[in-house]
Amino acid sequence: MQADLRSDTFTKPGKEMRQVMANAEVGDDVFGEDPTVNKLQDIVAEMTGKEAGLFVASGTMGNQVAVNTLTQPGQEVILDANAHIFFYEAGAPALLSGVQLRPVKSSNGILTAEEIEPAIRADNIHFPPTSLICLENTLNRAGGRIFPLEEIKKIRLLADKHGIKMHLDGARLWNASVAAGIPLHEYGKYFETMSLCFSKGLGAPVGSIVVGDSKTIDRARRYRKIYGGGMRQAGIIAAGALYAVENNFKRLTEDHKRAKILAETINSLNGFEVNLDSVQTNIVIVTVTRKDLTAENVADMLAEKEVLVLALGERMLRLVTHLDVSEEEVLYAADVLKELFG
Ligand code: TLP
User: Domain 13-248 classified CATH 3.60.15.10?
Assistant: First the structure.
């Protein structure tokens, strides 16, 4: 048996999804004429309470198109020091948008309005103007935690006070919405733009979306073109995304239950720690406290038993549950963990 817990990006399209993709109606999306892309954009815009959507190749492209659309070169963007946009997007905001990032360390994994406020620049010729705040939901490196709506509201008030825009990296907003019981459109109220991925927990092979008001999305479409993201008959892949939204959104709760099983098993082992409060969705972040082993050693030992996990730092391991990891495989992974480290 194998349990691939490296990422929910590893999901593969099943038979039915492939069938739907093969039969998709298509057109030239650069001309706005792909009916399947248009349908997907309309449906997700409606779900998120926004006027328009733009289908993009990846979560990274969605975030970067949004950052460029909402900023001018020379401005500053505030975000969590653990944010994907800061940590894992290859320095794209500096390269593509000419903005400076201002990473802020959160004291308990969730950035608060009080922590953000001192980072907002005063009007002074020495400083880059703060023009954008980026948040992430769920928080990848904080163990799949849900960004609390109450804090988002406070940050929005702060942003409005200073004339700052807000973007949400909602790669896994689907997970947050299902787990918190908060509809996507409720989150949509507090951000100029949000990006959501179809290629993670929802199980589509490719694709993400940026949503916002029509004017913003028109501008975003131009940046997508600049980045080489005009995809022509993209309906083939949009059909997979559409299928994923219709069939795999609500079932994310199953992944969340399975992540809890793994988290509790690991937390009961000597030399491993999981913050159980943070395991709210499909991600389990583990701290390897055993001095004789690094996270990489542990990942290698597990891989020998076909349990695949990612080492994200010297002492930091990540396990992610998803559509392609069954209950049985999760229990197998839990048994292997107990056998090796119990
Ligand atoms: N995250 C990947 C890796 O890049 C770390 C993963 O396995 O979790 N925002 C968030 C919060 C993400 O977790 C990711 C992907 C992205 C954006 C980027 O999406 P893609 O990979 O489609 O560019």
Answer: no
